[in-house]
Amino acid sequence: MAEVTVKQLADMVGVSVERLQEQMLEAGINGKSESSAVSEAERQSLLNHLKRSHGESAEAGEPKKITLKRKTTSQLKVAGSSGKKKTVNVEVRKKRTYVKRSEIDGEQPADPAVEEAMVDQQQVEADRLRQEEEQARIERENAEAKAKEEAEAKAKADAEAKAKADAEAAVREAAEAANKKQSPEKPAAEPDRAKKPGWTEDKKKETGGRGKSKKREEGRSRFDDDKRGSRRGGKLSRVRDKKGKPVSNKPNQHGFKEPTAPQVMDVSIPESITVAELSKKMNIKAAEVIKVMFNMGAMATINQVIDQDTAVLVVEEMGHKPVPLQENAVEEALLESIQHLQGDNASRAPVVTVMGHVDHGKTSLLDYIRSTRVASGESGGITQHIGAYHVETDNGMVTFLDTPGHAAFTAMRARGAKLTDIVILVVAADDGVMPQTEEAVQHAKAAGVPLVVAVNKIDKEQADPDRVKNELAQREVIPEDWGGDVQFVNVSAKTGDGIDNLLDAILLQAEILELTAVPEAPAQGVVVESRLDKGRGPVATVLVQNGTLRKGDIVLAGLHYGRVRAMLDENGKPVEEAGPSIPVEIQGLDGTPGAGDEFTMVLNEKKAREVALFRQGKYRDVKLARQQKAKLENLFANMQAGDVKSLNIVLKADVRGSLEALSQALEDLSTDEVKVNIVSSGVGGIAETDANLALASSAIVIGFNVRADAQARAVVEREGIELRYYSVIYDIIDDVRQAMGGLLSPEYKEEIVGTAEVRDVFRSPKLGQVAGCMVIEGTVYRNKRIRVLRDNVVIYEGELESLRRFKDAVNEVRQGMECGIGVKNYNDVKVGDQIEVYDTIEVQRTL
User: Fold this and answer.
1) Does residue 221 fall inside a structural domain?
2) CATH number at residue 413
3) How many whole angstroms separate alpha carbon 171 and alpha carbon 102?
4) Mean pLDDT throughout 668-687?
């Protein structure tokens, strides 16, 4: 072996260099550094030293005897006692021993090859003897199994032969008994009830009358005992030790015990829960819960959603303790996490909502204040969306909300009244109070919002402001100069007269309200509008009511959440933050929240996701429970109503507010006979999925200020789906009403086309009774229905079988002509009867 250094030797033996150097010093090897070479002699000297230190001689390291062992295992398939083959493992072990020549006393050192050959010969002989013993044992087991099978077969054959003999004896006894019964010399003895096939007197003595022989009792096999043991509650143990002896004959038992007392559990119950989830919480089968509910008088399925009150009754009925969950726990935790971030109050600008009837000048009034034109961008000059505008005036900042005045947007107006501080009620001086003006007053009063009345169009000749005051006073809106608390300001959106007075009235009302907010607090407010923009994704217009919203904040709005990626003001310019009473347009939410939903700035995105998912699940469960309840309650009503036709509509709009208003307006058109069913509604363009849904539900597709993409247009053209685009809500309502009129069941009107009087009655061998008639009015047709009248009373309705003039069959006979009429399936026509021919006309109905 080549020389190695001290470090290499230390690595080879697995010790440190310092320890190896100490051992070398002890062995008398001096002056060795880490890089010094170690010769073969030095290594041998070190090894001898280490052996002596452990109590061994230098030569003790050499072994005197070496034994090598080898073990191989093979498998052998043999026939078992039951006829099936079983596998036996055969293990062959080999051992070789090598002895040092110097240890053999009085012998010359042998040749290693000869010594190895002798050991191999002895090992082969031992293996051969072991295999012969294994083979003999296997043959012995086979012979025993075969003998056992033959004995069992013989016993079975003997039992069958004995049973056959017993049956033959019983047949003979029955025949003899029958012969004795029929013999007149001796009365037939009463048959022994114990005598059955295979019974004798000796057997009865042996068994004591039990019906089974003692031999058969003793002849029960061990297999029968095992089966009885299994039937009586446990299978006998088949566990055996290595020698094949059974370990125990006791039946196996379970390792657990059944609870001795009923388990009472605390079951947490949310606002709504399915039967399957409720059963899982109680650790019982759903069938048991359904059974208990059925006994309580409520039928339910495993996937049916039940409300909290019903679930509490079911849990109490089953002996558990219900724990109704407070569904606001997650919401309260969210509010607590941001409450400590409050600050000092500061005054804020008022949020003003402009309301009024259609075409009374609401948007024109805002146009003059903002010096912009909004009505020109609206279809037909009608405001379709809720608009939020932040206006800087000479008297201070004011935020305006412009709501549409059409009746279909009542819900939007109501929502606008709830998020506002002051309501400006615009009333045209020439028109006065209109129906939607009254609705605006009702919404403002319901929300507890003060009113400021702007009497518009005073520049017109027919303007009458006093008429407006009188009509509003009748609605309990009393002007200040009449002793009330409502300010009336005469304005003209065209000339600008009275605009400054209106702004002063607004700011005066705001001072009275003492509007305040906390600019340093987390932002909170209301979603004014939301839509799905093709390039920017979900976009929401929000009004900040408290705190300051900044770019990058995490916002939770209704059922959706997200990080504010961009903020735009009402003019489309990007801004970095928005304080109280400032409307902005934000991007970054994961969906379009509903108009009117509250939004809150959240510090943790994980918390926002948790609350959003909780709200979505709660909304889905409550909606499902409401639908299920409606189905059950209206089951019999729907059955009594019969077949109600429905007009299916897939509705898509550009913004959420228009979508909700359109849905409500179209559903209000439903009648008892025709129902408007909005299959799907959404914000954004018409996609291919919308077209496929319309195809599957036989619906028409309506797009309000949106268009279909290329894939959707291809499906519409290929399948012939009706697709209509609209930009004004009037047209949608009118067209849907017209389409519903086409679904109405038509009315049928009877029209008398001719009358014939019977003058004589003839008998025909082919046609039977034939009435000779004179047509006294109109025309008689052969293919129309008739009535037979006698003394102006209908005695028969049917059809004409034949109509003849002279000998010819004709299709019609006009007034003043004679004819022969054969009435089908009627032979009681008399002279003086009238035959009335009528036609049924379909009259189309309209709504």
Assistant:
1) no
2) 3.40.50.300
3) 95
4) 84
The answer as to whether 475 is a domain residue is yes
pLDDT per residue over 478-489, tens digit each?
Answer: 888 888 888 888
Q: Read off the pLDDT of residues 606-632 as tens digits, 9 standing for 90 and up.
A: 778 877 877 777 676 666 665 554 444
Question: Does a structural domain hold residue 216?
Answer: no
β-strands 768-781, 747-764: how paired? Answer: antiparallel
Tens digit of each residue's pLDDT (9 = 90 or more) over 688-711 = 888 888 887 788 899 998 999 988
Residue 259, token pair as written in the block: 């609870």
Which position has the token pair 């009505």? 375
CA angle 695, 698, 701 (to 5 degrees): 70
Q: What is the pLDDT of residue 213?
A: 42
500 and 354 assigned to the same domain: yes
Alpha carbons 694 and 722: distance in angstroms, whole number: 9
Task: Look up residue 746 and give its DSSP letter.
Answer: P
Boundary (domain end) residue, out of 566, 597, 621: 621
- 358 and 305 inside one domain: no
Q: Assess whether 492 and 562 both reside in one domain.
A: no
- Considering the domain architecture, whether residues 489 and 600 belong to the same structural domain is answered as no
Indicate the residue among 689, 723, 743 that finishes a domain: 743
How far apart are alpha carbons 357 and 379 in whole angstroms? 17
Do 666 and 683 lie in one domain? The reply is yes
Q: What is the mean pLDDT of the chain?
A: 76
Percent of the chain whose predicted confidence (pLDDT) is above 90: 6
Fill in the DSSP letter of residue 409: G
Which pairing describes strands 793-805 and 785-790: parallel, antiparallel, or unpaired?
antiparallel
DSSP string of 570-621?
TTS-B-SEE-TTEEEEEEEESS-PPTT-EEEEES-HHHHHHHHHHHHHHHHH
Band (pLDDT 50/70/90 cuts) for residue 498 is confident
Q: What is the mean pLDDT of residues 436-457?
A: 82
Average pLDDT over residues 54-73: 64
Q: Which residues contact 42 (CB under 8 A, 6 or more apart)?
A: 24, 29
Measured CA to CA, the distance from residue 120 to residue 356 in angstroms comes to 117
Which CATH number is 539's domain given?
2.40.30.10
Quick one: 532 and 598 in the same domain? yes
pLDDT surpassing 90 at residue 181: no
Same-domain check for residues 9 and 95: no
Rounded to an integer, the average pLDDT of 368-377 is 57
pLDDT, residue 817, reads 92
Q: Which residue has the higher pLDDT, 418 or 187?
A: 418
Q: How many domains does the chain fold into? A: 7
Q: Residue with structure tokens 């096999």?
A: 221
Is the domain of 754 the same as that of 766?
yes
Distance (Å, whole) CA 777 – CA 775: 6
Whether residue 629 is contained in a domain is answered as no
For residue 193, the model assigns a pLDDT of 43
In this prediction the pTM is 0.46
Question: What is the signed CA dihedral for 164, 165, 169, 170, rounded to 10 degrees?
Answer: -30
Residue 230 to residue 252: CA distance in whole angstroms: 10
Q: Please choose, from the candidates 648, 650, 662, 645, the residue with its C-alpha nearest in 3D space to the C-alpha of residue 715.
A: 650
For residue 559, give its domain range: 332-340+520-621
